[in-house]
TrEMBL record:
InterPro entries: ANL_N_sf, CapK_Type1_Caps_Biosynth, CHP02304_F390_synth-rel
The name this protein goes by in its record: F390 synthetase-related protein
Organism expressing this protein natively: Metabacillus endolithicus
Source organism, top-level taxon: Bacteria
Length: 444
């Protein structure tokens, strides 16, 4: 690990880059992207071919859009270090099997996404990019100075050289494998007494339950949610138990995309990436992000359409940052719900946030929930409630029926089944579409 580069990036991120206006930030993006594209065209045959008829990088914002499937299909030609997809996948799968995530190819770390969108993705990060990533993460997420002692408990399905790179001086990183048993986690937490906990919200909720029941005795300075959509239900519970603001990191195969400020508001990391919005509903601020990362050279990400649904914040954040602020990460495009319009018979999409809000306003007795679209006209609902389950079911049913009627959709059959979801290494999605065939004729 290049410690001097890590520290340089830490201080640059924390103190060096201050954009006093949105216009200055966008000018910074233009300069960075033009330089980045010049490099990429020399070293990536994929982008050179893709841009052969549009080589004027002064208009980079209108360059062709790529997706995850494009990146994976052209992995060998896209990356700039000559790594072959088959070799990278083999190393990543071996790491998953052995739980040893340290091997590299040369100076490049290989990571494997969890595959919630249906196909698993590879990411490549050089040792230089690791140091820069670590410096940025530490600057944005540490509760105090990098020179103070911090013990970080990190709960994830898979470890990575990238995550281990955050160790620096007095900062110690402790990986908790989500495949390990709960008793092992409890024992390690009580021994470590971490100052920072990073975990998916489903795991954080379990940790909060252990604290509430006095099974563990820990008082972390900061708690950070990762990997899953953070639901208000979980956020409120975790914040109440730990008596502090729950922070978030939006990290994906495609990079370190967003992090919360001191006020707990999620901001896109526009000192690392440029974000363009493909609106699904402009009035409500719902969009799919198209990102360009001007810091990643090993596996360039330019005009890349993510599969996530984001909701922009309509009011300025009190922290004063000009970075794009989000109300929330709503879920994935794969988990839009579908209904039939009563007037036109068209298939119409409902956003996950609509389902989420209907559930949450129906009753304050709901502890846990999951809503699954099984078929076009069949919605499964799982509830865990404090008391009076049948009354709560009636309230939930009424709110969901009201939602479908409000948008003039044919009301489907709503089926209640027992809440049987347990915390595991699998990402928890409270709003999930499991239909085999989905279309996208109309969005509301």
């Amino acid at each position: 690990m290049n410690k001097s580069l890590l520290l340089k990036q830490y201080f640059l991120t924390k103190y060096g880059r201050r954009f006093t206006t949105r216009e200055k930030l966008l000018a910074f993006h233009d300069k960075k992207m033009k330089n980045h594209i010049t490099f990429v065209l020399k070293h990536s045959t994929f982008y050179k071919e893709l841009y052969k008829d549009v080589l004027n990088n002064h208009n980079w914002k209108s360059l062709p859009i790529i997706t995850k499937s494009d990146m994976m299909d052209s992995f060998n030609e896209l990356n700039t270090v000559g790594i072959k997809k088959e070799k990278a996948f083999q190393l990543a799968f071996d790491a998953e099997e052995t739980r040893d995530f340290s091997p590299r190819i040369g100076n490049v770390s290989i990571g494997l996404s969890s595959g919630t969108s249906g196909n698993r993705g590879l990411f490549l990060v050089s040792s230089r990019e690791e140091a820069m990533w670590a410096g940025t993460v530490l600057a944005k997420m540490l509760p105090s100075s990098i020179f103070r002692e911090h013990k970080v408990a990190f709960f994830l399905r898979a470890n990575s050289n990238l995550y281990e790179s955050t160790e620096s001086g007095k900062i110690s990183f402790h990986y908790f494998d989500l495949l390990d048993s709960f008793p092992k986690h409890i024992e390690r937490l009580n021994q470590l007494k971490p100052s920072i906990i990073i975990a998916p919200p489903s795991m954080l909720r379990m940790i909060a339950t252990w604290k509430d029941k006095q099974i563990i005795s820990i008082s972390p300075e900061k708690i950070i949610s990762v990997a899953e959509v953070l639901e208000d239900l979980d956020k409120s519970y975790i914040e109440n138990i730990f008596e502090q603001t729950l922070h978030q990191v939006y990290q994906a195969t495609e990079g370190f995309l967003a992090a919360t400020c001191s006020y707990g508001v999620l901001h896109m990391n526009e000192d690392l990436i440029s974000v363009q919005k493909e609106y699904l509903n402009k009035e409500k601020g719902i969009f799919v992000p198209i990102i360009s990362d001007f810091t990643r050279k090993t596996q360039p990400i330019i005009r890349y359409r993510l599969n996530d649904i984001l909701i922009e914040r309509k009011t300025a954040c009190p922290c004063g940052s000009h970075f794009l602020a989000l109300e929330r990460i709503d879920g994935r495009c794969d988990d839009l719900f579908y209904g039939e319009n009563l007037l036109t018979n068209e298939e119409t999409c409902l956003f996950p946030d609509f389902i989420r809000k209907s559930i949450m306003i129906s009753s304050n007795q709901i502890l846990e929930y999951k809503v699954i679209q099984r078929e076009f006209n069949l919605i499964e609902i799982k509830l865990k409630v404090e008391s009076d389950e049948e009354a709560v079911k009636d309230l939930v049913l009424a709110e969901l029926q009201k939602l479908w009627k409000h948008y003039q959709l044919v009301v489907p059959q709503f089926q209640f089944t027992p809440y049987d979801i347990v915390t595991s290494d699998k990402k928890l999605k409270r709003i999930e579409n499991r239909m085999k065939v989905k279309s996208n004729d109309s969005i509301i």
